[in-house]
């Protein structure tokens, strides 16, 4: 009897469970919300969380302004460490390069509001009011 809970290649698995096991989302509910919101597509089509996923399916995931285009290589019902979860899919080279370029661009632009000193002082508020009245 084996304790490994991986599923063989002929089997199917719910999409929301796979996204959770592959560590794209921290909880199944977050995965379900993303699927229902149209942020996840399987083979180019919008799907429901209960959609069955097979090995070889192409999944597109949009999250936090970034996107992943991956091919399902394996199914696993348990959430494993990130190194093992990465073995469940293969990301396309174009997707990886595009995502890395976006991350690099965001890093170069800096964080919005990072130079802020917190809540505006009375003097700052007066200057803002004068500026917006013009």
TrEMBL record:
SMART domains: S4 (SM00363). Keywords: DNA-binding, RNA-binding, Stress response. Coiled coil: none annotated. The keyword Hydrolase does not apply. GO terms for molecular function: DNA binding; ribosomal large subunit binding; single-stranded RNA binding. CDD domains: S4. Pfam families: S4. Residues 13-74 form the RNA-binding S4 domain. Residues 113-134 are annotated as: Disordered. It comes from the Bacteria. One of its GO terms (biological process) is cellular response to heat. InterPro entries: HSP15 (IPR025708), S4_RNA-bd (IPR002942), S4_RNA-bd_sf (IPR036986). Belongs to the HSP15 family. This is Heat shock protein 15. It comes from Allochromatium warmingii (Chromatium warmingii).
């Amino acid at each position: 009897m084996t304790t490994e809970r991986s599923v063989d290649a002929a089997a199917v698995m719910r999409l929301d469970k796979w996204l959770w096991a592959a560590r794209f989302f921290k909880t199944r509910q977050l995965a379900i919300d993303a699927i229902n919101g149209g942020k996840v597509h399987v083979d180019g089509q919008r799907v429901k969380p209960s959609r069955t996923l097979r090995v070889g399916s192409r999944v597109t995931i949009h999250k936090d302004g970034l996107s992943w285009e991956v091919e399902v290589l394996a199914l696993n019902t348990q959430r494993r460490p990130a190194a093992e979860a990465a073995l469940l899919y293969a990301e396309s080279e174009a997707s990886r390069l595009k995502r890395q370029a976006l991350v690099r661009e965001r890093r170069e632009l800096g964080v919005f509001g990072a130079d802020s000193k917190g809540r505006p002082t009375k003097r700052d508020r007066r200057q803002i009011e004068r500026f917006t009245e013009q």
